[in-house]
């Protein structure tokens, strides 16, 4: 054991999740206990931020945006997924309320951080497109020199379009609570889900969305 920190509080504190931040030279970690999310500096083991009552009920899972510093996602038994900027934790940046029961898992896509995967006790896996808080809020960047006049006009029209966060797809192959979702580490368009029904289901990001992101 290299270092540790202890929490003080009434009753028995439940730790439900911990997540390393891929930023800041991997010196920060976030933990979830009961309804609170805390950030720690592993060099001093001191608390650097605290989101009290991050969720109305137990916080189940956390995940950091791999491509954008300070952005953290959380989910919990209040059926919500929340996105936080850890520099200002008074209010979430965005909130998703698409599930109808506990949200067990939230995962950012490693390559395209606008893609968010969630799994819930409502037996559903939901794929969301949170483009407005992603590292490329204006879409895939194209060098001006590579654009023809027609492409240039089309690109300008795309930029004028309002940013829209939306649910891309809802997957209902499971018959019981989905307690784990995970992106493939080899293929950014592939993801898996595990359920209490004893099944592992593998799905792909819809082809139309894949090409929209790439092109």
From TrEMBL:
- GO biological process annotations for this chain's record? protein ubiquitination
**UniProt entry tagged with the keyword Lyase:** no
Q: Transmembrane ranges? A: none
The record's InterPro entries line, in alphabetical order, gives: Beta-prop_EIPR1-like, EIPR1, WD40/YVTN_repeat-like_dom_sf, WD40_repeat_CS, WD40_repeat_dom_sf, WD40_rpt
A Pfam family found in this protein is: WD40
Q: Which family does it belong to?
A: Belongs to the WD repeat EIPR1 family.
Question: Under what name is this protein listed?
Answer: Protein TSSC1
Q: Which species is this UniProt entry from?
A: Leptosomus discolor (Madagascar cuckoo roller)
Q: What is the lineage of its organism?
A: Eukaryota, Metazoa, Chordata, Craniata, Vertebrata
